[in-house]
Amino acid sequence: MKYVLLFVGTQEDQDRWDAQPKEQYQAAMAAAGRWFGDYTKAGKIVGGEQLQGKVTTVRQQNGERVITDGPFIETKEVIGGFAIVEARDLDEAHEMAKTWPGGPVEVWPVVVEEH
Amino acid sequence: MVRVLGNFDVAEEVVQDSLVAALEKWPEQGIPDNPGAWLMTTARRRAIDILRRDRRYTEKLALLEGSPMAGDAVEVDDRLRLIFTCCHPALPQDGQVALTLRAVAGFTTPEIAAAFLVSEATMAQRIVRAKRKIVAANIPYRVPEGPELPARLEAVLAVLYLMFNEGYLSRGPQAAMRRDLAEDALWLTGLLDRLLPNQAEVLGLMALMQLHVARSAARFDAAGEMIVLPDQDRSLWDPEGIATGVRTLDSAALLRRPGPYQVQAAIAAVHAEAKSWEATDWQQIVLLYNTLLRLSDSPVVRLNRAIAVSRVAGPEAALGEVNDLAMVLGDYHLLHSTRAELLDEIGEHELARQARLRALELCQNPAERALLERKLRG
Q1: Is A18 on the interface with B (CB under 8 A)?
Q2: B119 or B364, which is more confident?
Q3: Interface pTM (ipTM) of the complex?
């Protein structure tokens, strides 16, 4: 079953991440890269990307599509990236999330089409 | 998807069906010498009700309780899986409690709704949501192993303790029509201990519940009014039940894995073995609270510790500690009622009255409210 792992944090986390010294940034990126690499080798990763914290929202307002700066719900939450993983069950998805070298991870089960 | 749903619902049904079958047979054929390990509560409780009325079966009952598990490994696994699935941390805790009562303890939805004083529709929705999440998120039907187990077991124990407290705190006249959640929680904890033996904290929680239940006859007077510990008639306590609780705690201690439930049970044991409120070994209780704070620090534990401190170091010292907690526990009725008791002790009756009024504003439980109102009337 597929799960989307969202790597979340606050805007402050994002700012700290961006402001960290170069070596530290590279080490953190390398750790994240290893996480992706290991699980990809194990056949557990279907896809994933790192995201820039430059989000806009397109939504309907009075029947018109309007574009606004920021995420849909006005939170301080930032999604730093995501991975689509193939896990046996929720426990395995949680185990993968636990080994993520960064901050909090949201685990979203993907809709399974009924046949 | 169907696989998981299949597993969960089938397991639930199998557990219930086999018990119903057993119940139909037993009255005709008698209880077998080795009646097997797992028995669904609905059925089992019904059996126990019958057995309790019929003393001839007392021995059989003992046999039933202590029956060896070895031959029933598959069924043991199924029951245990069911418990861990119902108490999965991906489910909201009220859903965990409801589902455990429904699937493991065999409560009907109306019974659970009544136990938690919510409408049947609300409870039905809570259960359906939890079941749907099990299916949709593919929450596995398995017993966690290795390093996963302690945290998951803690979640199960939290559900059982919540269930117990809900039943225990709401005994009394209003609760007369409600199924006794405390008894069920105790039974489930015993079941868990049989399925997953030698877990110190499971035994610790069981001891804690046994020590509470053993003293429950003294908690309400004939009119159904709640009686607090200092005023309880200790001759109403059940010495055998207390001894059982202490024995359970001893067997937990032998495993040398201390934990918060064991310490709480030890505190309950010190109370249970004291001849009176005054003769209680308060020094020992303060020490146990210190241990508990090291294991799991929380403002509520600190509040309880303050009561023991008042007996050792006097009400002023305790009042200082309680006041320090006012920031974090300002909305907790027991903070204000504890303050009121301490203020009364130092002669500040007007301040005590105000604290009690605040407690009354915050308190939902009918028995506790009645107690506060009685004190306010003087």
Answers
A1: no
A2: B119
A3: 0.80
